[in-house]
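REQUEST ID: PR-0412
SUBMITTED BY: lab tech R.K.
PRIORITY: routine
TASK: structure prediction, single protein chain
INPUT:
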Amino acid sequence: MIPMIRLDAIDKRILAYLQADAKINVKELAAKLNITKTPVYERIKRYEKEGVIDKYVAIVNREKVTRSMVIFCSVSLESQKLEQIKAFSQAVAEIEEVMECYLMGGANDFLLKVVVKDLKDYHQFSSGKLAALPNVNQIHSMFVLDEIKHSTVYPFSD
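STATUS: complete
OUTPUT:
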């Protein structure tokens, strides 16, 4: 289990600002928090060192750069033995159309978020790539009609 990092109110505010705009500089951040630059800089370096900040990325607006569709796939495996779960997990992690993958409890074993160009591409993906993975028993697909909310901001509660 990953150890939790204790965050105080200032930590949470810094992280909230960074999640909203990772390009904000230390001087601006310090001014918003009404503290000096040095402790802000030191805290950010600590977050990076301790893995609180995993990485910095640009979030691309999918609709501005490509015509694509989002599909959620629930996948059931034939066997839930640890070796088979690991084999499927490693294989699915290598497929570029899979944007997110979660091991689930309940009716299905995995939930995948998949992005493809169109239904023809999804058919090739689901039958040619996903169904060909080790131990796949069933695939159920749900097609996104409209994205109501998409967030990358982790909410901090006090």
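NOTES: Residues 50 and 60 are 27 Å apart (CA to CA).
REVIEWED BY: pending
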